[in-house]
Write a structure and sequence with these properties.
This protein is mainly beta and 146 residues long. It has one domain. 7% of the residues lie in helices and 43% in strands. A five-stranded antiparallel β-sheet has the order 3-2-1-6-9. A hairpin with a 7-residue loop joins β4 and β5. It is globular and about 60 Å long.
């Protein structure tokens, strides 16, 4: 490597073929992205018996605001009409619960069927193929668990 070469930090999620995979929540964190966009990022691990078993893919949710600093296991306020609240109540069959005390632990140990897609565009620009990655596009249904 010469003095004028550079390296791309390889912190992208893996790239796998688009499709449906069985996944479980591994961890979650809160983050501020693009300066003012509070996000909930849930890392899911592929649990399907396939060549991608054990790979971790993110699912990004917009949230109303973060409570405290962005961090692993951070607190947040989800919008009632947002995708996370809808997924949480629909998939986990939460019924009439208090909206101010919803546990993320309800997702632990639950196997979901997830639709995985390849991220090919960001901020109105095409992403070169070498920098494309996979993400969980949506959670379809609960396969087993709570």
């Amino acid at each position: 490597m010469s003095n004028h070469d550079f390296m791309v930090d390889d912190d992208l999620p893996p790239k796998i073929p688009p499709g449906e995979y069985a996944v479980q929540m591994k961890t979650f964190k809160t983050a501020m992205m693009f300066v003012k966009a509070p996000k909930l990022i849930i890392d899911f691990v592929i649990v399907a018996q396939c060549e991608y078993f054990g790979l971790v893919l993110p699912k990004y949710y917009n949230v109303k605001r973060l409570i405290g600093h962005p961090q692993e296991g951070g607190r947040f306020k989800a919008g009632a009409t947002g995708d996370f609240a809808r997924d949480y109540f629909h998939l986990l069959k939460m019924g009439d619960r208090r909206l101010d005390r919803l546990p993320m632990s309800a997702m632990e140990g639950v196997t979901f069927l997830a639709k995985v897609s390849t991220v090919k565009r960001a901020r109105d620009r095409d992403i070169p193929e070498a920098l494309q990655y996979s993400k969980i596009d949506r959670l379809i249904k609960v396969l087993e668990g709570k």
